[in-house]
Amino acid sequence: MFYKFIQTIDRFRPFLKAKAHCDVPCGIYDPITAQINALTAVRMMDLMNGLAEGDEKSRVDFHNSISRYIAVKEEHAEKAKHEIRVIWGDFIKDAHVEKYPELPALVHKIMQFGSKSRQTADRDAGLAFVDAINQFAEIFWAIKDIKIKRAKAPYAPALEMVYPDL
Amino acid sequence: MFYKFIQTIDRFRPFLKAKAHCDVPCGIYDPITAQINALTAVRMMDLMNGLAEGDEKSRVDFHNSISRYIAVKEEHAEKAKHEIRVIWGDFIKDAHVEKYPELPALVHKIMQFGSKSRQTADRDAGLAFVDAINQFAEIFWAIKDIKIKRAKAPYAPALEMVYPDL
Amino acid sequence: MFYKFIQTIDRFRPFLKAKAHCDVPCGIYDPITAQINALTAVRMMDLMNGLAEGDEKSRVDFHNSISRYIAVKEEHAEKAKHEIRVIWGDFIKDAHVEKYPELPALVHKIMQFGSKSRQTADRDAGLAFVDAINQFAEIFWAIKDIKIKRAKAPYAPALEMVYPDL
Amino acid sequence: MFYKFIQTIDRFRPFLKAKAHCDVPCGIYDPITAQINALTAVRMMDLMNGLAEGDEKSRVDFHNSISRYIAVKEEHAEKAKHEIRVIWGDFIKDAHVEKYPELPALVHKIMQFGSKSRQTADRDAGLAFVDAINQFAEIFWAIKDIKIKRAKAPYAPALEMVYPDL
Amino acid sequence: MFYKFIQTIDRFRPFLKAKAHCDVPCGIYDPITAQINALTAVRMMDLMNGLAEGDEKSRVDFHNSISRYIAVKEEHAEKAKHEIRVIWGDFIKDAHVEKYPELPALVHKIMQFGSKSRQTADRDAGLAFVDAINQFAEIFWAIKDIKIKRAKAPYAPALEMVYPDL
Amino acid sequence: MFYKFIQTIDRFRPFLKAKAHCDVPCGIYDPITAQINALTAVRMMDLMNGLAEGDEKSRVDFHNSISRYIAVKEEHAEKAKHEIRVIWGDFIKDAHVEKYPELPALVHKIMQFGSKSRQTADRDAGLAFVDAINQFAEIFWAIKDIKIKRAKAPYAPALEMVYPDL
After folding, report:
1. Is the pLDDT of residue A1 over 80?
2. pLDDT at E55
3. What backbone phi and psi angles, to 5 degrees, belong to D137?
4. Mind giving me the DSSP string for E6-39?
5. Helices (DSSP H) in chain E: which residue ranges?
6. Contact A66/A51 with Cβ under 8 angstroms?
7. pLDDT value at position A53?
8. Could you say which residues from 45 to 74 on chain D have a Cβ atom under 8 Å away from some Cβ of chain F?
9. Burial A85-121 (b: 16+ CB within 10 A, else e)
10. Which residue positions in chain F have pLDDT lower than 50?
11. What letters, b where the CB count within 10 A reaches 16 and e where it falls short, cover C10-40?
């Protein structure tokens, strides 16, 4: 049924391999954008939960705030997923997948945690999203032979993040 | 080094499994959007190559046309990649990956062929992009237990496409 | 008062006619994108009404879900209107309007049903939106001399749709 | 073949009529946005033609400038079309079409001139685009019982525009 | 600590000055776009407050309307800020700031009133936003040596606006 | 002429001050996004200049590459400007401007260097853009009482950047 796929891969091996050795025209890949966006999703969850449990506000103010938090959460969780997709599709080559065979499942999990972070205000889903992206960042910097460090983000929710040790 | 990933997956297995059985709040997934977008990328390649080889036009007209073809190619190839990412991240579950183990590599190839289709006007790259998305569509409809048929698209470049047989 | 308009049309008849016979640089026109987007608007209405009538959820979860359904409904209804406008503005020529004189009113209705589908969760408005776009699709495929068939969409809300019979 | 359309219109007449008398939730409609955007398209044509005929620039500078003019032209012509579509779909009711029967053809022409303005750097197409939108503005302000005046736009290309006489 | 900034400014004075005398490639700058967008934000506040105080509607209808008003308010307040940033960054030169030294603080206030207009439905914040943008418009037209007039906007909320007297 | 502005500022001092002490609902502000975007603009300049001076490529390939570099440069320079505007409008308060009186001129320069980086492929303009944003980052982190360090970016063009020392 999928025999054509094998052919396709064979047919295109030459130029895909070429691309693996020469990643011009590359952009600038940096997982920090995805990391900040995922962190923002958790922050919005915290604001949403704080608002729902907090002192009563006027009906209009409540709606204005919660709608904005949800919209910001949507936008940033989506952006985080998009950024990971770009790095994975444009920077990660077959050779990297061979060396880090957990990559395909990790990227799939990032997409699923990202969707969960959009569909709920469940902080655990948000934490898993950040965590999985941090693991992706760890692999990314390992591929680039740059050491990492762990430090708390300098803004709420101040989760421990993976940074390159420049 | 990646021990935390295993923990993460274990910690979130419950709600991910729950989601697999109950895909509310789902959108409407249909690979045809990605297929049409990839087809459009090939169409733009044909227009680009035709323009470069065709009768001389004024300098301004040439630039206006080629810039627009490139921009349309960019936008549609990107949209095709985005649509596949959404279906893969939101519709495809671990159980599907177990049944169709070629899925992770296929999705990775789609991203790579999509990038190649943006980076060049190489028609073979565009054909591989369409081909890989058609294979994804085939798996998608198989998961939904809907038979497929193959037919030429009713517009240039009239490539053979996978359609659900409704 | 509008005498200038007549002049304008006369002045531009030559190049507009030329365009009617040669639709390069055309994109790929397919009403299926509008049809799927309108269907998604109805799906979101169903989810909204189901949520409001369903079991009580936490305040945050309710808001998160309903905001997302509304936003998805907005986006897809708008996208459906946009797609019809593109086909109508770029593909439909004066000769088609002469042959199908109901077209201008039909397109106007699509815009109005689309707005109604954004302004409410009134399922009848959504159904009329889908219905009018299906009628547009029927004319579109007739112009292209391609037979149509009717079949239920392979996803909720499974409305009867117009498809080309390829 | 299209009998269903008549039914649809009949079925939805009640709420459409209701809407015609009560345009809440209305936005703020003003054709000036479309007019400025169409004017910008003409301005970009002038810059494009000036660049192609002007003193030789470096290859990179030439490409940078012409690509940006084309992209700005695309974006603004599209925005002008979008704005007219919004006013036409949301503000213009059947009663207005009865009073100004030229409206459907005028809106169709605006879409066609807009596309022509995107597909070429033909200044006549741009002028027709601006002209047709000015005529639309004239009808719009007449519907709102607000007198108009004509004046040159206070920026290049300084075409004569229709403004409300406030 | 910031000594490098002085160097930077000195280093780039030549081309910045050149640009001040020759604003090709300029777009078409007109504060009316920002003014209409800010007015729309106030309109949405009025609709939000009216909805919250008005007759009871169904739960779904209430949510659909208030979410849309908030989203429209967000989009238009953001667009107003963006338009001012563009005029300020691309049209306003150092010489203008010397002549109108209140400009930097005024632009900063516009951004803050714009954010306040997004974060609340506080009509006073919206009025201040419109007011500050009208003041910006007044300076803008003064720079271009075009007289202004004040008139009520021809749509709700019908605030007094600054218009060029063409 | 601008007496109303003083009134406006006075009238709104209360809530603006309140906001300065309580920055809920804040997002997560981090200048790194602007820094990476500005760096990307320089990278695109390098690719553009390299392409123009490099070995001859086919006409279509040359256009495809240069158009994409220009579009990426546009998008990222714009994004950098947008990010700085957000931090400046939402995070920077009057008290910060009093402490760092160079801020308004610095932000204005960032906008101008950003426009210059869009209008040309002049690497010096790009360097000034990155430099000014680094200076903004330095002030930003000083306001947050977080020490900075300088290090080369871990990707081409490997310029020296300001990073928080976490």
Report:
1. no
2. 75
3. -60, -40
4. HHHHHHHHHHHHHHHH---S-----THHHHHHHH
5. 3-21, 32-53, 59-86, 94-99, 103-119, 123-143
6. yes
7. 85
8. 58-61, 63-65, 67-68, 71
9. bbbbbbbbbbebbeebeebbebbbbbbbbbbbbbbbb
10. 1-24
11. eebeebbeebeeeeebebbbbbbbbbbbbbb
| Interchain proximity A63–E49, CB inside 8 Å | no
Contacts for C64 with CB less than 8 Å, ≥ 6 apart: A48, A70, A119, A120, A121
User: Is the CB of B119 inside 8 Å of chain D's CB atoms?
Assistant: no
Write phi, then psi, for F28 (nearest 5 degrees).
-110, 115
As a whole number, mean pLDDT of residues E45-61 equals 89
For residue B7, pLDDT over 60 is answered with no
Is residue E102 predicted with pLDDT exceeding 80? yes
In DSSP terms, E151 is beta-bridged to E161
The mean pLDDT of chain B is 87
Give the D window 2-41 contacts with C, CB below 8 Å: 2, 4-5, 8-9, 11-12, 15-16, 19, 25
Letter for the amino acid at A2? F
pLDDT at F52: 85
What is the DSSP secondary-structure string of chain F?
A: --HHHHHHHHHHHHHHHHHHH---S-----THHHHHHHHHHHHHHHHHHHHHHSS---HHHHHHHHHHHHHHHHHHHHHHHHHHHHIIIII--HHHHHH-TTHHHHHHHHHHHHHHHHH---HHHHHHHHHHHHHHHHHHHHHTT--EEEEE-SSTT--EEEEE--
What is the pTM (predicted TM-score) of this model? 0.88
Residues in chain C: 166
pLDDT at residue number B26? 55
pLDDT at C57: 79
Name the residue with tokens 């980052």.
F137
The answer on pLDDT for D22 being more than 80 is: no
* Listed residue (C154, B149, C106) closest to D108, CA to CA: C106
Phi, psi of F91 (to 5 degrees): -100, -40
Per-residue model confidence (pLDDT) at position A26: 54
DSSP string, C135-160: HHHHHHHHHTT--EEEEE-SSTT--E
